[in-house]
Amino acid sequence: MLDKSPEQILDNNLVHLKNEFQSHIPSIVMCSEPFHKTEFLSRLINSVTIPIIFVDIDLLYTGYVESQMIPKKENVIFFHPDKTNWKEKLSDIISTISEENYLVIIDSFNGVYNMFDDLESARFINSCIMLLSSISRQVNSTVVVAALARKKESGEWVVSPGGKHIIKSGKTGVYFLKKSKDDLRISILEKNDMFSKSFKIERKKD
Fold first, then answer.
1. What is the CA angle 101-103-109, rounded to 5?
2. What is the pLDDT of residues 40-59, one digit of tens each?
3. How far is CA 199 from the centre of its chain?
């Protein structure tokens, strides 16, 4: 059963949310709508000045940038790994973040799991993300992983479509993103599946 009235924080500049992400590596942001996910990632990218590594497996965000629907940011480096070069790209990313403080965005769990569809490969990907997160904690970088997900009747959150489990560890932060009218709301999902706190990001006024 979910908490009906979690604490809500107005966070238009994402200051509080970025502190959350820095304290919980990796941070998994779940959402049921791909366009809301893209809107949030755009707001997150625009809120930081440090270099960003964007691992775009779904290619949705890259498509928006290439079509100029989302402005291109000079501090964003895009990686587009596939099944054949995943290890090589991961090595490049680890080498890069070892030299400087980065925000690493992986978009998305769904794309990763679709790339590696068998159980053994899924475990390998989970291990890679945890390795990247461990190194990021050591060098003061942040890892945010986006995922399209749904909640099963049992209360368990799974990647949707596909039904694979969302990886978690003691240091993982799990959040649920939704859009309410014109505002984005991100809630912290605790271990008991209750929302303890939410962050409201208002739509930018023209």
1. 140
2. 999 999 999 999 999 998 89
3. 15
Strand partners, 147: 30
C-alpha–C-alpha distance, residues 142 and 133, integer Å: 8
Pair 43, 201: CB distance under 8 Å: yes
**Helix (H) or strand (E) segment spanning residue 186:** strand 183-189
| Element at 77 (helix H, strand E) | strand 76-79
113-151 pLDDT, tens per residue? 777 766 556 677 778 888 899 999 999 999 999 988 877
Separation between Cα atoms, residue 48 and residue 160, nearest integer Å:
29
Q: Quickly list DSSP for 24-63.
A: SSSEEEEES-HHHHHHHHHHHHHT--S-EEEEESS-HHHH
Q: Write down the residue that tokens 């809630």 correspond to.
A: 187
What is the identity of the amino acid at 99?
E
Beta carbons within 8 Å of 148's beta carbon, 6+ residues apart:
30, 31, 32, 33, 34, 37, 108, 109, 110, 159, 160
Architecture field, domain 7-201: 3-Layer(aba) Sandwich (3.40)
**114/124 Cα distance (integer angstroms):** 13
